[in-house]
């Protein structure tokens, strides 16, 4: 179900330095997400979204964005895709993200889009225009197995479609790569999966692969995830409960071995494992699960 709400602000300042994605501002044009990934952290109680399947379009978002951009002195990088996917199916009709990109281009800001959808190609010409300064698109890919992804990310386009979109963007000079997170313990944490992600990323012209070998879980997100495990992977819940209990950070059991394999594969393919910022400074990689 899709309905409209009124927002108070659209841009939020990102705490600096952003060691992951080089963002200065965050932007969410919707609440809820149609991709319905079973592991999504945005279901957590702290975000205040009661029904994550209810899509709320921020009807005044474009007017707010125009006003906020006109008052910003710093022409920083605006990120979108943290709380929901900016290219979920409703975007094809509503075009919130497309209209926001027009304003970002008009006011001379940069953009970093995080998505699981090849719908981003609709806005290729806009991205090319923004890229006169800087535009990046990161595709979340946690498995290259389309059939497995259909269980884990039931409303999202297949990983194969994302990889093809990434290759198209790269061929047009857009900074693009893979966000390899989360890697679900006991489901995606195999050498075969990590190897396939890196090899497919290289084949489709990824300019970076940023990893996190594990996942995070809390309150409502954990409840939802475990319920889906019971449906899709009977008996799997007990493995999670035994290993992680109520922990927030849940690294894969073989994290160090997979990290070594991942780094070796990326070195072989000459793929950076950090995201490059538009002004040329490469940020230090943060290992979320090193503790």
Features:
3-stranded mixed beta sheet, 291 residues, disordered C terminus, single chain, alpha/beta, 36% helix, 7-stranded mixed beta sheet, pyruvate-formate lyase- activating enzyme, globular
Structural description of this entry:
The protein is of the alpha/beta class and 291 residues long. 36% of the residues lie in helices and 16% in strands. Strand 9, helix 7 and strand 10 (209-211) form a beta-alpha-beta unit. Helix 1 (61-71) packs parallel to helix 3, helix 3 packs parallel to helix 4 and helix 7 (191-203) packs parallel to helix 10 (255-269). The N and C termini lie far apart (41 Å). Residues 279-291 have low confidence and may be disordered.
Write a brief caption for the model.
The chain is 36% helix and 16% strand. The protein contains 10 helices and 12 strands.
């Amino acid at each position: 179900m899709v309905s409209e709400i009124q927002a108070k602000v659209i841009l939020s300042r990102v705490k600096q330095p952003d060691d992951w994605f080089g963002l200065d501002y965050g932007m969410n044009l919707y609440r809820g997400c149609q991709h319905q990934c079973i592991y999504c952290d945005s279901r957590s109680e702290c975000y205040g979204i009661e029904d994550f399947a209810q899509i709320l379009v921020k009807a005044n978002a474009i007017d707010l964005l125009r006003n906020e951009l006109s008052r910003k002195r710093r022409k920083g990088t605006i990120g979108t895709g943290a709380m929901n996917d900016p290219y979920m199916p409703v975007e094809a009709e509503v075009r919130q993200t497309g209209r926001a990109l027009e304003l970002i281009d008009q006011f001379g800001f940069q953009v970093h889009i995080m998505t699981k959808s090849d719908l981003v190609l609709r806005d290729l010409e806009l991205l090319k225009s923004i890229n006169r300064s800087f535009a990046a698109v990161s595709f979340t890919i946690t498995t290259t197995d389309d059939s497995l992804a259909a269980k884990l990310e039931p409303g999202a386009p297949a990983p194969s479609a994302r990889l093809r979109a990434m290759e198209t963007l790269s061929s047009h000079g857009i900074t693009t790569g893979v966000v390899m997170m989360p890697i679900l313990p006991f489901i995606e944490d195999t050498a075969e999966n990590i190897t396939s992600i890196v090899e497919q990323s290289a084949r489709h012209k990824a300019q970076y692969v940023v990893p996190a070998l594990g996942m995070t879980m809390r309150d409502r997100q954990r409840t939802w995830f475990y319920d889906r495990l019971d449906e899709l992977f009977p008996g799997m819940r007990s493995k999670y409960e035994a290993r992680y209990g109520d922990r927030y950070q849940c690294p894969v059991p073989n994290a160090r071995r997979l990290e070594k394999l991942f780094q070796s594969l990326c070195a072989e393919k000459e793929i950076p494992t950090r995201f490059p910022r538009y002004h040329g400074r490469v940020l230090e990689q943060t290992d979320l699960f090193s503790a």
